[in-house]
UniProtKB/TrEMBL annotation:
GO terms for biological process: amino acid metabolic process. Its EC number is 2.6.1.-. Residues 32-382 form the Aminotransferase class I/classII large domain. The lineage of its organism: Archaea, Thermoproteota, Candidatus Korarchaeia, Candidatus Korarchaeales, Candidatus Korarchaeaceae. SUPFAM superfamilies: PLP-dependent transferases. It holds the Pfam family Aminotran_1_2. Its cofactor is pyridoxal 5'-phosphate. Keywords: Aminotransferase, Pyridoxal phosphate, Transferase. The keyword Transcription regulation does not apply. This is Aminotransferase. It comes from Korarchaeum cryptofilum (strain OPF8).
Length: 389
């Protein structure tokens, strides 16, 4: 058999997809599984977006587009980002990508040479570490502490800075912790990045899924950030359009042009009709989006109450995203053992905190993106399992 490239040994996998596969196997054996592992909205995209998608296909929007995306969508994104960040963004500062994931890949590919160091506050979305290592970069993790609400400490970040530091990847609202960074956190990171010529990749894909009337703080709202930052967001969460595979990166024209070049060499461009539908997502009525966010907040409140009733569990209330990240140290079990036993013995699929790096030991990640009945049933099963230990 032909030998695999050695770089494949550093390419990671995503815990959610592995657990989903295991859960499906158990389901084939006839077990009933409650799915709380996948970070996918349990809603459909807004109705007018679906209508626009059908019409776009019928109208022949089924061809290649420029690698950076169609101009009208870049324009719509530029307007939305300008409005929400209070700055002026032009279409030339936007690249539309095949999912936010390809924007992350493109940003790291464009800047990281073998041996370059990337600072990643962790636990974190596993793609950042996986892609960094794949292209030969070195990950410098900064452990996020529960006592600080899982917000990064600038002192801890500074300790990891060296002459090889090339980038820092941040994520707010944050998967898996549900933390939302404050403006001060971002100001300190931008100051450091400007002083040391470090690129800030800010993944803001959960920007709209934020609770208690809080406002999302974006890297792009910090004066001077545009010189050193790439902001990434997309359509998977706000408009529940995961399968459309549409994300975007915003930054200096030179930065986004490079990401478009990476895209040209991988997917060429995102699907044409998906891009047309995305214009309607941005420019159309937002009521369904607001209702979805209110619904996530109700689910967040429900899961928070449920978790506080489970012995050995404790949890900070997530300020954003659709993830609960309970501390499970009181159970005496490791995260992986508990996640595995909950799947096999209680029929609840969720993720070990360690799916987001070693810093996730002592935690579980539970998605509350699905139906309320599943959340209630899942929590009931976890509670019963824990009291049977
Ligand atoms: N960033 C984070 C933090 C995510 O949680 C996800 C999806 N789970 C993505 C990026 C990727 O989103 P997309 O579907 O746009 O590729």
């Amino acid at each position: 058999m032909p030998r695999f490239a050695s770089r494949m040994s550093s390419l990671g996998v995503e815990g959610a997809f592995i657990v989903l596969a295991k859960a499906r196997e158990l389901e084939r054996e006839g077990k009933h599984i409650v799915h709380l592992e996948i970070g996918e909205p349990g809603y459909n995209p807004p109705k007018h977006v679906i209508e626009a998608t059908k019409k776009a296909i019928e109208d022949g929007m089924t061809k290649y587009t420029p690698s950076a995306g169609i101009y009208e969508l870049r324009e719509a994104i530029a307007e939305r980002v300008s409005e929400t960040r209070g700055i002026e963004i032009k279409p030339e500062n936007v690249v539309v990508t095949t999912g936010a994931k390809l924007a992350i890949f493109g940003a790291l590919m464009s800047f990281i040479d073998p041996g370059d160091e990337v600072i990643i506050p962790m636990p974190a979305y596993p793609t950042y570490e996986s892609v960094t290592k794949f292209i030969g970069g070195v990950v410098r993790p900064v452990v996020l502490k529960e006592e600080r609400g899982f917000s990064p400490s600038i002192d801890d970040i500074m300790k990891e800075v060296s002459s090889r530091t090339k980038a820092i990847v941040i994520n707010t609202p944050s998967n898996p912790t549900g933390a939302v960074y404050g403006r001060r956190d971002l100001e300190e990171i931008v100051k450091l990045a400007r002083e040391r010529d470090i690129l800030v990749i800010s993944d803001e894909i959960y920007e709209d899924i934020i609770f208690d009337g809080r406002k999302h703080e974006s890297i792009l709202s910090i004066p001077g950030a545009e010189e050193v930052s790439i902001m990434i967001s997309g359509f998977s969460k706000t408009w529940a359009m995961t399968g459309y595979r549409l994300g975007y990166a915003v930054g200096k024209k030179e930065f986004v042009d490079k990401i478009a070049q990476v895209q040209l060499n991988t997917s060429s461009c995102p699907a044409h009709f998906a891009q047309v539908a995305a214009i309607h997502a941005i420019r159309g009525p937002q009521e369904e989006v607001y209702e979805m966010i209110r619904d996530y907040e109700r689910k967040r409140d429900a899961i928070y109450d449920e978790i506080s009733r489970i012995k050995g569990f404790s949890m900070l209330k997530p300020a954003g995203t659709f993830y609960a990240f309970p501390n499970i140290r009181g159970t005496g079990l490791s995260s992986e053992e508990l996640a595995d036993r909950l799947l096999r013995e209680a029929g609840v699929a969720l993720l070990s905190g360690t799916a987001f790096g070693d810093a996730g030991e002592g935690y579980l990640r539970i998605s509350f993106a699905g139906p309320m009945e599943d959340i209630r049933e899942g929590m009931r099963r976890i509670r019963e399992f824990i009291s049977s230990l």
